[in-house]
Amino acid sequence: MLNPDLDRLKAYPFEQLATLLSGVSPPSDLAAIPLSIGEPQHAPPPAVLDALHQHLGLIAKYPTTKGTLRLREAIADWANARFNLTHAPLDPDRQVIPVNGTREAIFALAQAACDRDSAKRLVVMPNPFYQIYEGAALMAGLDPHYLPIDASGQPDYRAVSDAIWQNTQLMFICTPGNPTGTPLDADTLAFLIEKANTHGFWLASDECYIDIYRDEPPQSILEAAQHLGLSDYDRVVAFHSLSKRSNLPGLRSGCITGDARLLKPFLTYRTYHGCSMSLAVQEASIVAWSDETHVEQNRVAYRHKFAEATRILEGVLPATDPGAGFYLWIQTPTACDQFARDLYAHTGVTVLPGQYLGRAVDGVNPGAGFVRLALVAEPATCTEAMHRIRDYMEQTQ
Ligand SMILES: Cc1ncc(COP(=O)(O)O)c(C=O)c1O
Questions:
Q1: Relative to the CA of 109, which of 85, 124, 312, 381 has its CA 20 to 30 Å away?
Q2: Does the beta carbon of 249 sit less than 6 angstroms from any atom of ligand 1?
């Protein structure tokens, strides 16, 4: 016997991509350039690696699920400063939990937060979306409700009916978004917090790209809650990660912060789930959360790459910088899977068809007709990829 909910999980986008590209031979004289996966290729901060080395001996000890107070303080200090949480600074004891990368925590949160026997059936999410939201909802025994993104790069949240809000237990938002990079504005965040409190659902904001921006720092749901005077962050939690901000995707280190009414039972859930963070990783994470210099250097590199990419692709593909995150979300001249396959065959550049990140609702998949390009490689490699794409587009036009 198996958990029948397992049958509801969909093939992961990268499995679909592997199938799409199987049997395709890219040019043998060109090195492959993968822009399909959002894995930062910039160097991790040396001070973080040093801290990891220095504290390796701590793997001889069991860590607690809650993490050390020093780590929770470092996270709270970062969030309080970054999001101007001066009226209601995060309490490291009650409102911060370290997690082993936000992926596991996003999944686990739904398991802890959702009541599978409730009359309310929905976990609401954008469409296209980070795939874990859907898997988390399905394994929690609820139904995903997909909100199509529009030309803004985010769903039109004001178009959602009260009947849907009333049937919602948990909502995932993503700001800046994956795959579009578009951040949510302060009014929309406030609107969503009010809906969560009116209709009694948990609002989980996935903000793992929030420190990657060009000019304006995107606002956090925590900041918006504080502006509304919700000093307990009522019904709101946020996920932050060191993976993108600090180029540490393999460290598996992030955090969840916000409403202690959810974090307390979530901590209990996590104790049984067994996902405490190694003390050596905690020490390295303290260094990463406490330093902004490397994050600004990272932003400088992304600014440069976005400026280059949009300049090089101008006139051949509609590539615009969304202002945050590290993805370009580009409308394709042919079906997006065909485009990705042909591009790979001719250039060795891998991009992700948007339809793999979305779901068809009433026959319409809002991810179809787009590809996602992760500008994660070093600047010279990204520039090379953009030139190859430009040359290919010029040859096919
Ligand atoms: C939108 C979004 N959320 C969460 C994650 C998970 O990041 P991590 O588990 O490395 O913190 C990713 C990773 O790509 C992502 O794109």
A1: 85
A2: yes
| 103 CB near ligand 1 (under 6 Å) | yes
Domain CATH number, residue 333? 3.90.1150.10
pLDDT at 66: 98
Which regions in the chain score pLDDT beneath 50?
Answer: none
Phi-psi region of 84 (alpha: psi -120 to 50; beta: other; left: phi over 0): left
Task: Name the residue at shortest CA distance from atom 15 of ligand 1.
Answer: 130
HSE toward the beta carbon, residue 154, CA cutoff 13 A: 19
CA of 324 from ligand 1 middle (Å) equals: 15
Alpha carbon separation from 11 to 206, 359, 366, 380, 395 (Å, rounded): 22, 12, 18, 33, 34
* Residue-number span of the structural domain to which 165 is assigned: 46-289
pTM (whole model) above 0.90 = yes
Is the distance from the beta carbon of residue 241 to the nearest atom of ligand 1 less than 6 Å?
A: yes
pLDDT at residue number 397: 76
Burial letters 162-189, b for 16+ CB under 10 A, else e: eebbebbbbbbbbbbbbbbbbbbeeebb
Collapse the DSSP code of 45 into the 3-class scheme (helix H, G, I; strand E, B; otherwise coil) and give the result.
Answer: coil
Residue at token pair 């690696």 = 49
- Same domain, yes or no, for 300 and 202? no
Which has the closest alpha carbon to 78: 233, 246, 259, 204? 246
Give the whole-angstrom CA distance, residue 104 versus residue 177: 18
